[in-house]
Design goal:
The structure is a single chain. The protein has 248 residues and is of the alpha/beta class. The strands form two sheets. A six-stranded mixed beta sheet has the order 6-7-8-3-9-10, sandwiched between helices. It starts with 5 loop residues before the first strand and ends with a helix. The chain has a domain of 67 residues. Helix 3 packs across helix 4 and helix 5 runs parallel beside helix 6.
């Protein structure tokens, strides 16, 4: 059921790749200050669903309303909407040549019309926040995987987003690097950031999520409070998924 407080309101989304039905009547919502984790087996449609929220993936039926703005309306200014929804993917994709400070100031200056001095101050604050203040003048190739992901979080936050989307941000990292990124995300959750997170990190989900959305074969099978999902998942598919994930 949708909420009138929802920052992200997903309403009966259907999506096809040719004849392949990848999202099937998907409906859920993320309220202001809420953390919703989306999980499920590989190929269940998790990443596709989260990419529809900032219109990186089009959908054919239904609607998504982000902070009162409908994505199904052709007149919607999608670049403006994307600038207000921070997104962190599996891999950090900066501009290859500028150092981190220039990487993180560029969008602020172009999209937010933020002056250079103010933009650089924002960058210093955010790099300190993600534990990378000593790396401000480094280039992408000089950073480890977890450092690159923490920079991606800082870059998204530099745009003062109303919500953050995370698409398996730790899946490409070596195991010893995962906690560095999750710690930053946990801190964001504690500060009340609205977040929608696709992840297999069930420890993170248990710790910070308000709700868990479980997907299988392109459909949302469960949408439950976190405690209820982990203690007594309703579907056989979710129980099977949890037994496999938590076993490892």
């Amino acid at each position: 059921m949708s909420s009138h407080h929802a920052v992200i309101d997903i309403r009966g989304i259907d999506k096809w790749y040719g004849s392949h039905h990848v999202l099937k009547q998907c409906s859920t919502h993320v309220d202001k200050g809420e953390i919703v984790v989306v999980c499920g087996p590989s190929g269940s449609g998790k990443s596709t669903l989260i990419k529809t929220v900032n219109a990186m993936e089009p959908f054919q039926k239904g609607d998504i309303v982000v902070d009162g703005t409908s994505l199904a309306t052709k007149s919607t200014n999608l670049p403006k909407l994307r600038s207000r929804v921070g997104t962190v993917f599996q891999h950090f994709e900066p501009f290859p040549h500028p150092d981190l400070t220039r990487n993180l100031t560029l969008a602020q200056r172009i999209v937010l019309d933020r002056g250079g001095g103010r933009a650089r101050t924002k960058v210093r604050e955010l790099l300190d926040r993600v534990g990378l203040s000593a790396h401000a003048h480094k280039y992408q190739g000089q950073l480890s995987g977890d450092q690159q992901q923490r920079v991606a979080i800082a870059r998204a936050l530099s745009m003062d987003p109303m919500a953050m989307l995370f698409d398996e941000p730790t899946s490409a990292l070596d195991p010893e690097m995962v906690n560095e990124v999750l710690d930053v995300m946990v801190e964001l959750a504690r500060e009340g950031m609205t977040m929608m997170v696709v992840t297999h990190e069930m420890g993170f989900a248990r710790r910070v999520a308000h709700r868990v959305v479980f997907m299988e074969d392109g459909a949302i099978i469960e949408d439950s409070p976190t405690d209820a999902f982990f203690q007594d998942a309703a579907s056989v598919a979710a129980k099977r998924f949890l037994s496999r994930i938590l076993h490892h």
